[in-house]
Amino acid sequence: MTAAPTVLLSEAEIADCVARVAEALAPRLKPDCVGICLLTGGLWFAADLTRALARLGIDLSFDALWLSSYGDGRESGELLLRADLQRPVQGRQVLLMDDVLDTGASLKFARDHVLRAGASEVIIAVMAQKPVGRAIEADVVGWEAPLRYLVGYGLDDGAKMRGLPYIGALD
């Protein structure tokens, strides 16, 4: 049995981070912006962020890209596009939303994918960012995370612990 994670960011602290991200994004978002969640981990952040933006009067169109690189393990593998966009982004601003920016491979793949689909601009928002070298940078970051194995709030360990209402560490 896996030990309980060490809580690094509480549910209330996550809510504060999401509200700050929404406030930072609000002035930049155009009325026809398409919010794109990177599945699966980004779902929790994207849901909370789109509600926070709605409270600020911004109603995003919503879509998702399902990317996979980990399977049920901890080691990153080949990046796969499992499900593509369902709405057009041609000529539109896109807000990419994800749980954590680590190496940046998934977000770079997603950004390049939506630009090839004709997006006019891509803004990247992440809940957490780790202090490592990255293939891409986020425009807005909710929390500067430590270089630890994170779980909760969409982050998983072998497809488990995503539903924890906090972000914790397993190491």
UniProtKB/TrEMBL annotation:
<feature type="domain" description="Phosphoribosyltransferase">
    <location>
        <begin position="29"/>
        <end position="134"/>
    </location>
</feature>
<keyword id="KW-0808">Transferase</keyword>
<dbReference type="Pfam" id="PF00156">
    <property type="entry name" value="Pribosyltran"/>
</dbReference>
<dbReference type="InterPro" id="IPR000836">
    <property type="entry name" value="PRTase_dom"/>
</dbReference>
<dbReference type="GO" id="GO:0016757">
    <property type="term" value="F:glycosyltransferase activity"/>
</dbReference>
<dbReference type="InterPro" id="IPR029057">
    <property type="entry name" value="PRTase-like"/>
</dbReference>
<protein>
    <submittedName>
        <fullName>Phosphoribosyltransferase family protein</fullName>
    </submittedName>
</protein>
<dbReference type="InterPro" id="IPR050408">
    <property type="entry name" value="HGPRT"/>
</dbReference>
<keyword id="KW-0328">Glycosyltransferase</keyword>
